[in-house]
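User: Could you walk me through two proteins back to back? I'd like the raw sequence and the structure tokens for each, with a short line separating them so I can tell where one ends and the next begins.

Assistant: Of course. Protein one, sequence then structure:
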Amino acid sequence: MYSIPILTQLVTFLHEIGHATATIVTGGHVRSLQVNLDGSGLCTSSGGIRLFIICGGYLGSIFFGNLILYTGIKFKYMSRFFAAGLAVCLIFASLFWFSTLQSFLFTAGIGAVLLFLFIKFSWSGRVFMIVTGIYSIFYILHDYQTGPSSDLVAFSSIAGFNATLWMYVWLVTALIITMLFLGLTLKKK
């Protein structure tokens, strides 16, 4: 799959935020997040329920990608504000969680540029939400073939069974999440 660097890094951010969200929801503490220019990332945390935290990256990013797309399609006028909220999340995460200067500058910079665009151009938020949502969903569904391999290996070492089995369980779960959001998106008011 052809990748668009800035969107790939945003998908990585969603993946790492998925880990961070699972950490917080299960009572843990996020120590740092890192998004690298090559599209890789890392969430360091302590506490929480490790199994949920590990699968939170892949499943969280598919959830967030679908939510972004759904918002862009269903909330034509409000999507600008939702997009601005995502930009603020990027800035917030860079201020409180990022451990490297490169990750901080990238994330805060992207958040600031996006926030400026969303304020300046009313149409930009909706376009951003739809494009980012579609890209995220396809990227994440495609990613099951090559992994979040480190997450799959870590998950299977705790949960048991083979990483390939969990890869397909995560893929089926991601497809179910996507189908549910698709149903909501196509549903008439």
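----
Protein two, same layout:
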Amino acid sequence: MYNSDMLIKSSIDFNNPFNNEIIITGIVRNVANTFLKDYSRFANTFRNFRSVKWFLVESDSDDNTLDILRSTSDLDSNFSWCTLGEIETAKIARAERLSIARNRYVTELQKDDYKSANVIVVADFNGLSNLINEEAILSCWKIHNWSACTANQSGRYYDIWALRHPLWSPNDCWKQYEFFRRYSKFPELTLFSAVNSRMIKIPPDSDWIEVESAFGGLAVYDASIFKYARYSGNNLNGEETCEHVEFNQLITREGGKIFINPRMINTKYTDHSINSSACSILARIIKYPIKKLKQIKS
């Protein structure tokens, strides 16, 4: 149980963004084809800030991700990482495995080497933040006293499982999908009703959107919240949920404010938003009766 005494006063310099010390963190798996471009892009984006350190957590890679991380740390003294080895098993749900990896960086960032940081940037390193730049990050300082700013996309907003907003996405989209499937013979209609209909396009000049939870592949956090918040792949009822939801709702329950920053665009499309496009949906609808016929014949 957390109480308001645990919410530490922000140490972010909201008047001068470049006066802040940054930590870039996240989890990686099989990123051999994307990591070096992501690393270079983020290093360039934050080059003018007071200091930048890295700490990444790897697990379950079967490509040469480990070699790339080793070579990067050899070249950059501010780049650190660890590996958890193989943690994926049939007994551990995906969200819980992700929370194990994420809590590893939460624990690490509490050590003395990172205590001077004002801002912690949590990012995905699978090529998703291919549009991120300094201007997008600096837009987070247009508004003061946030606990977290999360990313937007220039295409449709994709990260619905991590999203909680009282009107836009008040519940777990996949639990709603499972409920609707009990009463619908048409999976695409169910998918649209529960998930794809929430993938709206947010213009970059929109007002900031206050949410209970969001991620979108990139989030800028007040470092103080990492002293008490933890990830979990299960909700209070023990049901699987997106690990970002439990982390973010700890923040909002303690009075912190989380926003989607429309100007902090990290990419245009992801696999999720592409799969929700009309063309992709139509292609799957066309294949559906063919698939059913094959099942009948077999």
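The longest strand covers residues 258-267.

Let me know if you want the two compared in more detail.
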